[in-house]
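Re: export button greyed out
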Amino acid sequence: MTLDELQVLMGELYGEADAARGVPSTVAWLCEEVGELAQAVRKGTPDQQLHELGDVLAWVASLANQLGLSLSEAADRYVDAPPA
Amino acid sequence: MTLDELQVLMGELYGEADAARGVPSTVAWLCEEVGELAQAVRKGTPDQQLHELGDVLAWVASLANQLGLSLSEAADRYVDAPPA
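Workaround output, generated via the alternate export path:
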């Protein structure tokens, strides 16, 4: 799956709910999922970690959609000029 | 860019440093970047938001690499059985 495809998928699945929720609530939800990922990394199974990685990715993509920004473009910085 | 390509790129750029740092420190760093993203969303420019989205993606990919997990597989859950 490409980053663009991920964003399109999230827009199809959740774009309407995202717009109704608004950006600050999406940030809050992303933080909640990052907490769940941290917990799964500390004491979860690989399946649980995979689940939480997916949720974090999904919320990052939903947030990018709401901001009108491209994850692919964001990632390109690591191709063109990766931080040391 | 595909999710697989993102993980390969992060492994090439940072795999050695990631392994030396260890998983808990990677989780801590991811959380730091999520905080920077939250701040950029609240009061940053679109360029700053794009920058921080890229950093969060990069750390999620580095973490997945360290856990031996596939972001592509993680995202596939949203294709096969998306949460409501």
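The helical segments of chain A are 3-21, 23-43, 46-67, 71-80. The button fix ships in the next patch.
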